[in-house]
Amino acid sequence: MGVQGSSLKRYAITRLALVIPMLFILLTLVFVLMRVAPGNPVSASLGGHVPPAVIKQISHQLGYDKPLYTQYGHYMWDVVRGNFGTTISDRRSVGSIILVNGAATLELTFFAVIVALVVGLVVGLLAGRYRDSPIDAGGRLFGIVVYATPVFFLGLLAQLVFGVWLNWLPTSDQASPITQALLKTHTNIFFVDAIIDGNWGALWDVTKHLILPATTLGLVYGGVFIRLIRINVIRTLKEDYIEAARARGINERSVVYRHAFKNALVPVVTVIGLQLALLLGGAILTETTFNWPGLGHELYIYLQNRDYAAVQGIVVLFGLVVVLASIVIDFVNAFIDPRVRY
Amino acid sequence: MHLRIRVRYLVALGAGVLALAAVAASAALSAPQRSNASTILDGTTDTVTNVDPAGNYDYGSFTVDILMYQHLLDFPAGSKVPSPSLATGCTANGAQTAWTCTLKQGVKFSNGDPFTSADVKWSFDRVNTIKDPSGIYSLLSNLGSVTTSGDYSATFHLKSPQSTWPFILTTGAGFIVDHKVYPADKLVANTDVGSLVGTGPYKLTKFTPGQQAVFTPNSNYNGSAVKNGGVIITYYSKSSTMKLALQQGTIDMAFRDFTPTEYTALGKTTGIRVYKGNGVVIRYLVLNVKRAPTNNPAVRQALAYLMPRQDIASRIYHNQVTPLYSMVPAGLPGHTNAFGEQYGMAPNTAKAKALLQKAGVKTPVPITLWWTPSHYGDASADEYTEIQRALNASKLFKVTLKSAEWTTYSKTLGTQYPAFQLGWFPDYPDAEDYLAPFYGTKSNFTSNGYSSAKMDAILKNEAGAKTTAARLGFVKQAQVLAAKDAPIIPYWQGAMLAVARPNIAGISSTLDPTYIMRFWELTKS
Amino acid sequence: MATAAATTRLHRRTIGLRRAFAPIAEARGFARGMLWTGAGLTLFFVALAIFAPLISPYGFDQYQSGGHRFAQLAHPSHSHLFGTTVQSTDVLSRIVWGAQTELEVVALALVFGLLVGVPLGLFSGYFGGAFDRGAVLFMDAMFAFPPLLLAIVIAFLLGSSVNSGVLVAAIAITVTYVPQYFRVVRNHVISVREEPYVEAARALGAKPTTILRRYVFFNVVQNVPVIATLNAADAVLTLTALGFLGYGVQPTQGAEWGYDVSRAVSDAASGIWWTGLFPGLAIVLLVTGLTLLGEGLNETINPVLRKRAFRRVDFAASPSQALASETLEP
After folding, report:
1. For C311, phi and psi rounded to 5 degrees?
2. Cα separation, B77 vs B85, whole angstroms
3. Cross-chain Cβ contact C73/B238 below 8 Å
4. What is the value of ipTM here, to two decimals?
5. What is the least distance, in Å, from the CA of B63 to any CA of chain C?
6. Residues in chain A within 8 Å Cβ distance of B59
7. Measured torsion, CA atoms of residues B50, B54, B56, B57, in degrees rounded to the nearest 10
């Protein structure tokens, strides 16, 4: 274990060390991109009501007319000390945006992943098991069509059917106004906060609000999972040990459920990690459709307001999450398969 | 073997069902924590910049502040005249350069601190010290200093005479804060809800930026009792989501802002009522007097002849706006249909053609009209398409439409655009606030190059007029001159619209030109 | 005699081509179904796009005809098969012209992506070194962005300086796909460059560009059609997402389905379903078509997944006959 252990450690350190330059590139990229765009947060919030002279004065006060590299230097120096800035349009610290709104996105994507997994696993397993049968064809078609449906369109349909016509479920926000007003904040994840307080009425309310957005987002990405899991099941069913099990006379049902499925599930973690970037992207659209106060939604708003600090912070956070997730996955793979390490 | 698996599945299933039943049962049994039956649930698409009054200059923040703070003078429902609120009265000296206000006694802030003249001086001083990037301090540009005399008298020393100073006292720059709590040189953070004390009808008990603001009645409020148990404002980024929420009953009412089609559709929905009152928001087309082709007065006047006001109002806005014939909207003292009188109430192609011919202008005149998406709502696109259609149809103009995103647009305005869209909602409901920011050489924020000594003189006289009658006379003169020079063509005036479910009463009485939603007068049944 | 020889020559010349397309002819089962359905759907929209001026009853922003204005938000009727929008434009026309917009952007994005990603990948994979390490690091950083996020930021930036919304959207989408093309090409190049025939070429003194051109490029390019079709599907989704959020193609520049859905949201809750349902369905159908085409291609070409057709084995009368028929069979 000695030699293997040290090469694993080396691999881990190498990958983690690469995160820093990657982050640096992301931050710089976004910084430059934001500054290149015309307009700044001051004109965004003030224009049309205040004389241009005042706008200029305020821009100067905030340092937006300094040369690019000076602004960049100040920004990086702040970042190193943990200060990601404050927004202009609503005076929030980027840190608090990430904590509060990030929690909302986390809540949404967590439940969306669960939905996607359930859909992907059930349909993918069945499709792979009964390859080339109508079940397979139907499952694959379902996966393809559902992925082809834009998240915002599916969300709109869901809101119409379940919200307006049937009036079963709420169509926006994380909780009803009064529930949200009374809920105490612990983790900013409403679901968890309700449990912590033992507030079952609030928990039910929060769950109702989660159903449509999480299902919409999860269904669309379930389509992706279906394909990946199906292929995996097919590959696993071709393996020698499955042949061996069949040859030994174990009945088909046991072979499939006991042996094949378990091994087909192993790359699920990898699959989730790979789709994380897509999922976060889809979250932007879902949050905008359902007025869900997550980071994607905030990004959309801050982008319109040219609130650089917030946009930089959110984009880099998204990037960081994906990078870390891929490292964890690669690490898990490296742990299992020594060939993968550098 | 199979049986065991089956049994296991059944047990798991049964446990799941039982758990769900337990949750559902407890949910049904546990009623909402407190009886909030009379809390008004409002929805809006506005945003809040800062709660601290010295740090905001937008309507969303103003709505929050008007619930928590008071001014020395305020507008009671239906009145267009600043009336005593925290002050019992304000009088000017002969030259109108100093206004002295006598303050109400026995008023307490929501935290128990007594209200005195020290708070007045503190509140105004800090606006100018902090000089917040929102630009709110620009409203106090005429204020020299504030002095106090005893605990219940404060005097405002102005830089130049202004008869409308009481109106300035009613704006967002005039909210009174507690000098013991609010720092003189810094804003109170939005998260520090406990420190955001005021004398207003409500206290802010919870503020989640971008999501909701929760208000409960202020027990120390010096006015008549608040008619409901509290207000919760929920913030939406899209009006379509807000419309769904209103239809489902998640919110009881919505104020600002739906698209015209949404208002029309809501008006037709059973169980929902659209309330319409006299509004003071205006929309206008600014013309650059220094750039071709609008540097030619004949071209500007021809555009004034051709503006399709009725079509815009009925087709695009479903009559939720009314055609506007002067920068000063109808409903404010001094309003006169200057453009209607000079150019007619309906578009007149013949007269426009004659005018251009006489001036020797070759037609069709190529002109680029700029507009901005999203900031003024999606209907902007339709609005300018309509104007383009009308102008092109007259064969006198050939219109190219261009748009720019708000942040670029608002910074550029007349510095580059030859003709562009703008909207305005007033700082205070008086004609002065519709004239000076557009026609005064120094105060013109549109950068359209308009500068007229004659107009400046009229505005100066208006500011220093000794009597209301005299002042309104100057207001009329200004409007007539503005129509003749036509550097700006106003075209619609928006109604003040609010939408509510039948359980909310009292909205009609708060819809007036002061454009304040007085939540404390609404009842919920 | 002459024609027989000519046929044999033609046979020999096209053997590569026929070999390439053989798997498609051999496709059976679901893969075949996917391929043909996908191709059909895709071709349908391509036809709409190309023949838009002939098929569409009205222009994409046409609000009147013969001096008579269209009604606003009118129900589907025989004059407006899919109804009209809030701007009095015809929904069906916007679907047809929208097909042109979507495919225009996607085609541009694919071309740009290939033009940038493939040479970069080839160069980086073959020559390696510092350039390669730097490029990989940069591309990995790009991969970390959720693609839609990157597209939004780029579309947002370019929207103010570039006038053509189609170009803006195309570039935004290109940027999100370049890392993918780069990575695939680079990995393939790395594996190919160690092949014996490449080594042999090098030993013979062939220049790097020759090697790249002759051996590596064609080898690598095989991967591209499948990725390109599947990317086209994603590109359409990204484009409509941009349109939904208000970036990319502006309403005055062309019809875009995602934008139409965003305008339809407020109509929908009032019972006006035609302004949103048709654009939404159009997106679903086009993306489904492209995906089916891509998946179908993948299943038929990819040797791991493809299922060969079962042919009856005919034992030849004599060995020589079997031999003769063997040489010309793919």
Report:
1. -110, 145
2. 13
3. no
4. 0.84
5. 25
6. none
7. 170
